[in-house]
Design a protein that fits this description.
Blueprint lengths: L4 E3 L1 E2 L13 E2 L7 H5 L4 H4 L2 H17 L6 E6 L4 E6 L6 H16 L10 H4 L10 E6 L2 E9 L4 H14 L1
Parallel strand pairs: 2-3
Antiparallel strand pairs: 1-5, 4-5, 4-7, 6-7
Helix pairs in contact: 3-6
Length: 168
């Protein structure tokens, strides 16, 4: 896992992972217990702990798929990027590809492989309908998208994305 860098706009708290990973955390806030009890369950699906598991799963899956040089992006429904993981020697184009796949998956609530060839979606700025993006659902509603870019075959990207989703 050496050589992996993870960036994220993670809410608060520290995420412990092995390897060389870093995370950007916002300052912790004092939340009254009543407000904490009313916090949406979506916050638990994309918690710091689950994002740390996702980062680890990304690295393990990329290694299992032949030491792929990929970037993984997890984007919330609002468009906020919560996590970016780049494996060693991932090309500069992999970030943009992963980001656009994550956006497409969460915006349309379907894997990007299911949207391949859709001329209408391809015309929408910021979308990418190549395999490698999967949505994350909570109570039947897409709350996030996971995009992976950089493998020589989109099916490999998608298998990595599915492994990351399973870790959430």
């Amino acid at each position: 896992m050496a050589g992996v860098v993870a960036f994220g706009a993670i809410a608060s708290g520290a995420a412990a992972t092995t390897g060389t990973a870093s995370a950007q955390s916002a300052p912790a806030r004092n939340i009254p217990s009543a407000a904490a009890a009313e916090r949406p369950k979506v916050d638990y699906v994309l918690s710091n702990r689950s994002l740390a598991r996702a980062a680890r799963a990304a690295v393990v899956a990329a290694g299992r798929e032949g030491r792929q040089r990929v970037t993984v992006v997890i984007m919330e429904r609002s468009g906020v990027i919560r996590l970016v993981v780049r494996t060693r020697k991932a090309g500069p184009q992999t970030y943009e590809s992963a980001k656009r796949k994550a956006y497409t998956a969460v915006a349309f609530g379907r894997p990007t492989s299911a949207l391949t060839g859709n001329a209408t979606i391809n015309q929408i700025p910021g979308t990418l309908t190549l395999p490698g993006g999967v949505p994350v659902f909570y109570k039947g509603f897409p709350i996030a998208g996971i995009g992976v870019g950089g493998a020589p075959d989109g099916r490999i990207d998608e298998r990595i994305a599915e492994a990351v989703r399973a870790a959430l």
